[in-house]
From TrEMBL:
InterPro entries: Plipid/glycerol_acylTrfase (IPR002123). This is 1-acyl-sn-glycerol-3-phosphate acyltransferase. SMART domains: PlsC. The keyword Metal-binding does not apply. SUPFAM superfamilies: Glycerol-3-phosphate (1)-acyltransferase. GO terms for biological process: phosphatidic acid biosynthetic process. It comes from the Bacteria. CDD domains: LPLAT_AGPAT-like (cd07989). It comes from Stutzerimonas nitrititolerans. Pathway: Lipid metabolism.
Amino acid sequence: MELATESVNNRPNAPWLWRLVATGLSFALFGLGGLCLRLIVFPVIDRLPGDALARRRRARLTNSRLFWFFVQFMYRSGVLTYEVEGAERLGRPGQLVIANHPSLIDVVVLVSLIRDANCVVKQSLWDNPFTRGPIRAAQYISNNGSAEMLDEAAAALQQGQTLIIFPEGTRTTPGQPPQFHRGAAAIALRGATRVTPVVISVTPTTLTKAEPWYRIPSRRFHFHLRVGDDIDPQVFASQGSAPIASRRLNDHLHQHFIKELALDEPTTA
């Protein structure tokens, strides 16, 4: 997959007005695409031969490929450039992919790199008419804050699925370090064979929690995704009770991301 292997950061900067129009077109395309998937594509996929597992895999593959095309549209229209390091290490059985969440398209890029990924998503996306079709067809997990969500996520990992989680639960506040909730660590200890941290940086910042989509930066933004080394959750599970192990793993992940994000901060002369 092109996105998984290529660094694309040398495209000439497009004019600001064109990038504003292209950004609007990108999100219009995303919304209309979600509706088409819900009303046309997934009803057809559901009628193809195969059991429930086969239908789920087809739905996840469809999401992955279309998200890849969406990222390519944003790149080719001059909205962004991108760089991905280590994508070949994503998509392994029982793998919990933990990422920080600086922008609106983080999950789009990650899912585009993994053909059969599960993902914990906000409850509001389950109810959104533009996103609920792809989310429900792929059987992503709703982050509704319940204990059942933790059970469902751990069970998915135990079944050999690859699961994506953003431990912050929402996009990072610009200028602030990420703040991880302990739920992702608890899930890792209960079901993951490996935890793989993925550090995401967006320069200049855009599509953050505090910004509407039309407040675009003065130049196209660069999306950098770096896959880190695996972490064995059992190392932490052996260090004490479940709450203690969860806290220690969460602290380890938090410090890892703070250190790695510091490497991506722009330097001044």
